[in-house]
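Dear Dr. H.,

I hope your travels went smoothly. While you were away I took the liberty of generating a structure for the chain from your last submission, since the lab meeting agenda had it listed for discussion. I wanted you to have the full record in hand beforehand rather than looking at slides cold. The sequence, exactly as received, is reproduced here:
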Amino acid sequence: MPMATLDRAPPPFFRQGPSALSKLAVCSALALFLMVADTRFKLMQPLRTVLGAVLYPGQWLALQPVHLLQTGSEYFYSLNAAQRSKDDAFKQLGLQSQKANQVEQLTLENQRLRQLLDLRQRLQTSAMAAQVLYDAADPYTRKVIIDRGLVHRVTSGSPVLDERGVLGQVTRVYPTVSEVTLVTDRDHAIPVLNTRTGARGVAFGDTSRHADAMELRYMAANADTAVGDLLTTSGVDGIYPPGLPVARVEQVDRRVDAVFARIYCVPAALVAGASQVLVLEPLTDQVPARPAPEPPPPVRNKRGEVIKP
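The corresponding predicted structure, in token form, is as follows:
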């Protein structure tokens, strides 16, 4: 056997070129060089621009089904929302039409009842617009300062309203500003009337539950008071005109071992963010004065003589 046949090298016909490890090293070095060169000198930026321009039509065609699906879903969603809004608007229109049809009849009945019972009309009160300047400095009270005072003929005790209901009462008057105690202050009390049952009570400011809350106190545990009842001014205090919204019942807590129920309310006015308010004149001058008490009958002795005290 010739000695050439014992050589372990492959025949010249099957030579594969550089080894795989050499190719990996060269390609890695080339890739690293291209990355560094592209980062420093932006060599591949023109190629990216050309590729982006060439591939854009294909990308646009590939994204069209997604855009069509999104547009179709948005269209049907907006169509359903518009249909629901239309149905709600028709319902509200029907309710408003029903109420409007009843207004004239209720107004006529009210006039006839007042004429029949010879009741006088509600007291008319003049009003003055004011603006809330800032909150009071005391953090333990619920008071605000408005830009009306003695020079504007504001008097102590004047009711203060916002667009939703009773906000509070003027407690101090200065030359150009006034201090208003809000209905949620712990020292403030206002006579109220339950519009559902006609029962009268007194609502106090209460900050035990949260900052803007009230409590209807001294109501019997079996009193007919339910969540959602509207409380308005009763007008029996001679300060607030009757019928102004004050609060709405939020929670009724009745206990077996308690005489009075714990009734928590939410004020109707925007006590935490009111900016424009209305100052009314108190009804003290319009309400007739209380009659003087009659003197007690004279005390006589057995002989019928008047005994002087």
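Two observations you may find useful: The chain has two helices and 14 strands. The chain has a mean pLDDT of 81.

With kind regards,
E. W.
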